[in-house]
Amino acid sequence: MEPRLVAIFFVAFLFPTFVQSLVRHYNFNVVLKNSTKLCSTKSFVTVNGKFPGPTIYAREDDNVIVRVTNHVKHNVTIHWHGIKQLRTCWSDGPAYITQCPIQTGQSFVYNFTITGQRGTLLWHAHITWLRATMHGAIVILPKRDIPYPFPKPDKEKIIILGEWWKSDVEAVVNQATNSGLPPNISDAHTINGHPGSVPGCMSQGYTLHVERGKTYLLRIINAALNDELFFKIAGHKLTVVEADASYIKPFETDTIFLSPGQTTNVLLTTNQSVGKYLIATTPFMDAPIGFDNVTSIATLHYKGTQPDTKTILTNIPPLNATTLTKTFTDSLKSLNSKQYPTKVPLKIDQSLLFAITVGIDPCDTCTSGNKLVSAINNVTFLMPTISLLQAHYYNIKGVFTDDFPANPPLVFDYTGADQPDNLHTENGTRVYRLNFNSSVEIVLQGTAMIAPENHPFHLHGYNFFVVGQGLGNFDHDKDPLRFNLVDPVERNTLSVPNAGWIAIRFRADNPGVWFLHCHLEVHTTWGLKMAFIVDNGRGPNESKLPPPNDLPMC
Ligand SMILES: *[C@@H]1O[C@H](CO)[C@@H](O)[C@H](O)[C@H]1NC(C)=O
Ligand SMILES: *[C@@H]1O[C@H](CO)[C@@H](O)[C@H](O)[C@H]1NC(C)=O
Ligand SMILES: *[C@@H]1O[C@H](CO)[C@@H](O)[C@H](O)[C@H]1NC(C)=O
Ligand SMILES: *[C@@H]1O[C@H](CO)[C@@H](O)[C@H](O)[C@H]1NC(C)=O
Ligand SMILES: *[C@@H]1O[C@H](CO)[C@@H](O)[C@H](O)[C@H]1NC(C)=O
Ligand SMILES: *[C@@H]1O[C@H](CO)[C@@H](O)[C@H](O)[C@H]1NC(C)=O
Ligand SMILES: *[C@@H]1O[C@H](CO)[C@@H](O)[C@H](O)[C@H]1NC(C)=O
Ligand SMILES: *[C@@H]1O[C@H](CO)[C@@H](O)[C@H](O)[C@H]1NC(C)=O
Ligand SMILES: *[C@@H]1O[C@H](CO)[C@@H](O)[C@H](O)[C@H]1NC(C)=O
Ligand SMILES: *[C@@H]1O[C@H](CO)[C@@H](O)[C@H](O)[C@H]1NC(C)=O
Ligand SMILES: *[C@@H]1O[C@H](CO)[C@@H](O)[C@H](O)[C@H]1NC(C)=O
Fold it and tell me: Which residues are in the Plastocyanin-like domain (predicted)?
């Protein structure tokens, strides 16, 4: 049985009441599994032979201990996506950023405490493209005796959206790296591991069993690699109550939108006639490349439905439903209640403008002689061969430089028709250094170079506040006047709209090395990533903990 639950009680002497937190132990064995989907069988890498993988359950303030043991030939690491990892950057997981991989036959114990977060997050492999089949939910319950700030649901269900390739996923990315061209798109989307029917292969898809007259909390996770997704249920409204493990002001919608890495909790009230209702997941793609229109379906099945009942269908959003994504994103506001105040930094110490480009660089080893690359401020990030955190902590020279540019080296009309002709980028392992507790604003500016595209950016180690977003070029004078500094949504991942920008803020109060990257794996592979080093503070709890004894070495 997977979750071995060992309870240890701590008495917090500082508090008048008796506060309890638990230590939760999990064993993750990385093993191969064979499975048939889309009428095709393959062997793939999993945690504990499950797809999706096991769920981590914890309460806010609990200490989570996960022993990961690698029984496969691939190198592996696991990232606890959205967990803030206060002072425990060693347990964050991105390969060659905070740790070297766990190699065949090795184990590593991830050890972190969940602080100031509650809701749904996900864990996933963070090396090459293994997260395609190595991912699962993290359910963080509120502290004992603290209710949800919305009506208590009768039941909870986890819905994990994924992507499935009939081929070996590592072969897909290796083929793309060798050619320098875009990788093959997936063959289907999955809902809790089940693809719907595709031409030539019928499938039942996943069934979500419900009873009439109840309220369900659906914890929805986008664990896809490269696709932003819409999710809807025929005949039912969804009340959105939380995003990326932060409460939001509840609102009703019939379609939700999630980028890879994002999580959303919604309330579903089963107040329709007993019957079967279509659940649909479809991709959002407003850029003209990598066309993919596979809808994945599941069924909401009310208890007591007659066997021959027809499923009630729903219309699905078109691939290019940009307005829908904007309406959804604009509706997200943090709860900002007395209990959960929104602490957005008002005064900014570090102001950064990061321009996102796609380019083409020469490549001797590529069959085409060139390769597609992507860059932030014209820097295509090169992965180091030992971890940045190790190099930083032990002061090992020659691994990285701390001269990541704060602004684009070339100022141009980022979203206009007149783009630079020179599509080359620079490359390097460059990081940006931040003082402890400095307040940071980053404007992520999309550009129209080669392909204007939507880029879901993910920051490790922090949540950020989304104070503004817009289309076109960011205007330093006018746009800040419209910033929301009252109840901006707090997230760990957010899409930079196609040929537009987002402005995010965070306080750098967590020392360590923290990755910032596009969460479309294809773009991460192309170099759309960088890292921050946040220095230690001077206070007693303001330094990184020392590295664990079993930290994997390169
Ligand atoms: C998967 O299938 C292959 C080929 O049939 C077989 O050799 C292997 O043992 C199977 N692996 C697992 C984990 O079942
Ligand atoms: C987890 O980390 C804490 C803080 O460093 C330490 O006290 C504890 O012993 C660790 N637990 C395990 C199981 O390694
Ligand atoms: C990618 O797609 C092409 C064209 O369909 C196919 O020939 C190739 O085998 C695929 N590559 C992998 C790794 O599946
Ligand atoms: C069903 O519940 C939704 C809220 O999820 C509400 O908007 C709707 O009006 C209800 N419909 C009926 C028929 O009660
Ligand atoms: C979209 O899917 C439909 C139905 O499977 C198919 O007929 C059509 O060719 C697809 N369109 C594109 C652009 O792939
Ligand atoms: C979306 O795509 C459809 C079909 O390709 C096209 O007719 C429509 O103009 C597009 N809408 C937008 C807003 O680009
Ligand atoms: C990016 O760097 C390359 C190589 O130095 C240079 O040729 C190109 O003009 C730069 N492009 C931009 C947009 O800064
Ligand atoms: C990095 O850039 C240099 C100079 O343009 C080039 O020689 C080298 O091949 C590039 N490295 C990679 C991995 O692209
Ligand atoms: C961080 O800075 C804020 C704003 O200046 C201040 O209120 C807070 O006490 C500082 N925190 C630490 C740990 O220094
Ligand atoms: C440091 O952390 C410990 C344990 O979490 C806590 O008891 C203590 O109050 C903290 N000290 C300061 C100065 O914040
Ligand atoms: C696994 O990681 C080690 C350490 O970085 C590296 O030397 C080795 O080549 C990697 N093995 C594979 C199969 O990628």
Answer: 33-144, 156-304, 403-537
